[in-house]
Specification:
The complex is a heterodimer of chains A (113) and B (112). Chain A has 113 residues and is mainly β. Chain A has a single domain, classed as Immunoglobulins (Immunoglobulin-like). In chain A, the strands form three sheets. In chain A, strands 2, 5, 6, 10, 11 and 12 form a six-stranded mixed sheet that branches. Chain A has a four-stranded antiparallel sheet with strand order 3-9-8-7, with no helix packed on it. In chain A, a hairpin with a 2-residue loop joins strand 7 and strand 8. The termini of chain A are far apart. Chain B has one domain: Sandwich (Immunoglobulin-like). Chain B is 0% helix and 49% strand. Chain B contains no helices and eleven strands. The chains are: A mainly beta (113), B mainly beta (112).
């Protein structure tokens, strides 16, 4: 079946440093990939989703590139902000089969001043 | 545009009690999802509907959980006899034509 792997449970870094959160996936088709962000006691909110035409999605300074050859969709940002502290989930969708999402286990990002 | 609305926000039960969760999706969204999110884990799909029809309920514990969406709008998820292992946040989400899920704030369930 489909699966999403996020290898880091917790990432801690200092404000201003670059961010990279890893995401790899397994799927028998060509899925859509997503990053969701969840702040404490809030619902997950969409941060980014992959495009079918290989464009690089960007939002709030975050970007991610879908690499089909390595089945990866790593999340990056050039300079972390304190407000970026949250839980980040990578997810994939079966697209044509109803858009249901399969989530990874999540990575907690903690940005220190 | 109003988001996905869920109620109640919190529920505390003893084992064996029943509980229902209610969800009002974004207007016009034909697909509605129920996810279970145990503490410190990612959301896991329980069931989803397109309009009033169940598309996939393979992960729904059928002996105690049930979900309906009778008119293709609001939905109710019910746990008949709760267990401690059901302690989690229950998230409702909806989607329209753009392959993007929008989540509600969730119902946090504690089973003692």
């Amino acid at each position: 079946g489909d699966s999403v792997t996020q290898t880091e449970g917790l990432v801690t870094l200092t404000e201003g440093l670059p961010v990279m959160l890893n995401c790899t996936y397994q799927s028998t088709y060509s899925p859509f990939l997503f990053w969701y962000v969840q702040h404490l006691n809030e619902a997950p909110k969409l941060l980014l989703k992959s495009f079918t035409d290989n464009k690089r999605p960007e939002h709030q300074g975050f970007h991610a590139t879908l690499h089909k050859s390595s089945s990866s969709f790593h999340l990056q940002k050039s300079s972390a902000q304190l407000s970026d502290s949250a839980l980040y989930y990578c997810a994939l969708s079966d697209g044509d089969m109803g858009y249901k999402l399969t989530f990874g286990t999540g990575t907690s990002l903690l940005v220190d001043p | 545009e109003a988001g996905v609305t869920q109620s109640p926000r919190y529920a505390v039960l003893q084992e064996g009690q029943a509980v229902s969760f209610w969800c009002d999706p974004i207007s016009g969204h034909d697909t509605l999802y129920w996810y279970q999110q145990p503490r410190d884990q990612g959301p896991q799909l329980l069931v989803y509907f397109r309009d009033e029809a169940v598309i996939d309920n393979s992960q729904l514990p059928s002996d105690r959980f049930s979900a309906v969406r009778p008119k293709g709008t609001n939905s109710t998820l019910k746990i008949q006899s709760a267990k401690q292992g059901d302690t989690a946040t229950y998230l409702c989400a909806s989607s329209g034509t753009k392959n993007t899920l929008y989540f509600g704030a969730g119902t946090r369930l504690s089973v003692l």
